[in-house]
Amino acid sequence: MTLLLLLACAPKDADTASDTAAEETTDTTDDATTDGSRVSTTWFIGTGERSFADASPDVTYELLYQRRLEPGSGQIIEDTYEVIDGALTHQQVTAGVDGDTFTGAYTDEYGDLTVTGTLVGDPWTWFLWDAEATYTSGEREGATLTANVELHSRGLAAEETLTLSDGAEVHVDLAIADPVDEATFSARLEKLGG
């Protein structure tokens, strides 16, 4: 699965300068919380292409991505959905934010991962983030996922690489997604059975 905060599951087998801030590029809802902070949620729908390390194609998939920013609790919550060969997968991850860095941990079907990353842009309106997740246990122990994600005027662009513990690069994912409103996102997810 494509890592957007670098917080999603990776495949089993082993872009550009920002021209506007994130809040200008996406359909976002803002909700006040009890502590007065603003919670914002953005939604994206697009496609991804996974290639083997030699650049030969592996699979093309549909991508749905929801990102919720919670400044009051210092968290980013992501829901990433992929549809490959008609099968829908989902990964939800929560990352803690401290200044311009984030950390988290999660488990996918290949093992447990720890995540670290850097955020670029004004706090809570970041337009770029880099991340690295390392498998700390399981079938892929020692493997890493690295990602670069950017929000820009046309939506979201992400690049992710899976590298095994022996240094062998296995897959590269490139994903492009357009901003959508909550109703469009929810309708598509429901149609896919999510």
Explain this structure to me?
By secondary structure, the chain is mainly beta. The protein has one domain: Lipocalin, CATH 2.40.128. A hairpin with a 2-residue loop joins strand 5 and strand 6. The two termini are 16 Å apart. The relative contact order is 0.26. About 11% of the residues have low confidence.
Task: List strands and helices in order, with pairings.
Elements: E1 28-32, E2 38-52, E3 57-70, E4 75-84, E5 87-98, E6 101-108, E7 111-120, E8 128-135, E9 144-152, E10 155-163, E11 169-180, H1 182-191
Antiparallel strand pairs: 1-2, 2-3, 2-11, 3-4, 4-5, 5-6, 6-7, 7-8, 8-9, 9-10, 10-11
**CATH-derived topology:** Lipocalin
Count of domains: 1
Strand content: over 45%
Radius of gyration: 16 Å
Low-confidence stretches: 5-26
End-to-end gap: 16 Å
Spatial strand arrangement across the major sheet: 2-3-4-5-6-7-8-9-10-11
Summarize the main sheet. 10 strands, antiparallel, barrel
Number of strands: 11
Q: Which structural class is indicated by helix and strand composition?
A: mainly beta
Mean pLDDT: 85
CATH architecture: Beta Barrel
Bulk shape: globular
Number of helices, where a helix is a run of at least 4 consecutive DSSP H or I residues: 1
**What is the H-and-E element order?**
EEEEEEEEEEEH
